[in-house]
Amino acid sequence: MYIENRGQHTSLNAFYKLVTLFDISVDEFFCPDKLGGESERRKRIDRMLNDMDEKELIIIEGTAEGIRKARETEGA
Q1: What are the CA-CA distances from residue 45 to residues 49, 75, 76 (Å)?
Q2: pLDDT of residue 66
Q3: pLDDT tens for residues 10-54?
Q4: Residue 10: how many CA atoms within 13 Å on its side-chain side?
Q5: Backbone angles phi, psi at 14, to 5 degrees
Q6: Alpha-carbon gap, residue 18 to 24, rounded angstroms
């Protein structure tokens, strides 16, 4: 794929190919206001979650639920 474009804007097709090739979220380009509050850690975790299969996500969900329940019992 040739992306040199002599100072012109990249076409949407080339943009799509690049973000697909490098597995980049386009939210930060199209909706920067929505992502303004997310920390770098949250973004890294989100990328890791995207690479997990259903079984791994079940483990993560159970862990998060356990943390939430433990937090509730501390305050009670």
Answers
A1: 6, 27, 29
A2: 96
A3: 678 888 888 888 888 787 777 767 655 677 888 889 889 999 999
A4: 12
A5: -65, -40
A6: 8
How far is residue 57 CA from its own chain's centroid?
15
Residue located via tokens 């929505």 = 34
* pLDDT given at position 51: 92
Q: Model's pTM, two decimal places? A: 0.50
pLDDT of residue 50: 92
Q: Return d(Cα 23, Cα 16) in angstroms, integer.
A: 10
In the numeric block, the tokens 């386009």 are attached to 26
Extract the tokens encoding 37.
Answer: 């509050």
What residue segments make up the domains of the chain, in order of their start? Answer: 1-37, 38-76
Cα end-to-end span (Å), the chain? 59
* Cα(30)–Cα(26) distance, integer angstroms: 6
Q: Which helix (H) or strand (E) holds 47?
A: helix 40-50
